[in-house]
Amino acid sequence: MTQTSENVTWLTQEAYNKLKAELEYLTGPARAEISAKIAAAREEGDLRENGGYHAAKEEQGKQELRVRQLTQLLESAKVGEAPAANGAVAPGMVVTIAFDGDEDDTLTFLLASREYASSDIETYSPQSPLGTGVMGHKVGEEAEYELPNGKKASVKILKAEPYEG
After folding, report:
1. pTM of the full predicted structure?
2. In angstroms, rounded to a whole number, what is the distance separating the alpha carbons of residues 144 and 90?
3. Cβ of 78: how many Cβ atoms within 10 Å?
4. pLDDT, position 33
5. pLDDT of 72-101, one tens digit each?
6. Average pLDDT over the chain, rounded to whole?
7. Closest among 107, 115, 110, 106 to 83, alpha carbons compared
8. How high is the pLDDT of residue 81?
9. Distance (Å, rounded) from C-alpha 122 to C-alpha 130?
10. Phi and psi for 46 in degrees, rounded to 5?
11. Helix/strand/coil for 18
12. Is 120 in a helix, a strand, or coil?
């Protein structure tokens, strides 16, 4: 499968390791724990009125969903490759924009997947309306994106630098 920038998730080595450890826990010890909970609840008798059994099955479903999400995310991850510092907006960049060209009304954010996110800086996905609008634009250029109400908003790219987090 050829990877495009749309299906690649950029991760720091630290974020990759954290997600990999979570996946290993969920597919190992956590699966064993939930299986034991289900087995214990099943022994209590009538499954139709067994709240513990239904809660454990629901928890199992949530765990398996997270396992699928993590597996897919890690398969498409690119680790530790910072984007080029060429002033063009790309995933893994810290971007500063001015709304409607007003340099007093700015936003600085990391363009990356949530798993890459840091609590130090707001993060926008490359697939978000703002992310798609600014992607590929260079410092000094105007970009446009669609707001949830269907209207267009324009921003000016003030800065685009690789994330050092």
Report:
1. 0.56
2. 16
3. 14
4. 94
5. 888 887 776 666 677 889 888 889 999 986
6. 83
7. 110
8. 61
9. 13
10. -45, 115
11. helix
12. coil
The encoded tokens of residue 80 equal 């530790």
3-state SS of the chain: helix, strand, coil percent to 5?
A: 40, 25, 35
- Tell me 75's DSSP state: H
The structure tokens listed for 120 are 């130090």
Cα separation of 109 and 119, whole Å?
A: 11
The whole-angstrom separation of Cα 7 and Cα 126 is: 10
**What span, in angstroms and rounded, lies between the C-alpha atoms of 57 and 105?**
49
Measured between alpha carbons, how far apart are the two ends of the chain, in Å?
Answer: 30
| Under 8 Å between Cβ of 159 and 139 | yes
| Distance set, CA 129 to CA 123, 124, 144, 155, 162 (Å) | 13, 9, 9, 12, 21
138: three-class secondary structure by DSSP: strand
C-beta neighbour count of 28 within 10 angstroms: 10
Pairing of strands 106-111, 123-124: parallel
Contacting residues for 55 by C-beta, under 8 A, at least 6 apart: none
pLDDT at residue number 1: 35
Q: Which amino acid is at 107?
A: L
Most confident of the following: 8-12, 24-28, 125-129:
24-28
Which residues neighbour 73 within 8 Å (Cβ) at sequence distance 6 or greater? Answer: 9, 19, 113, 115
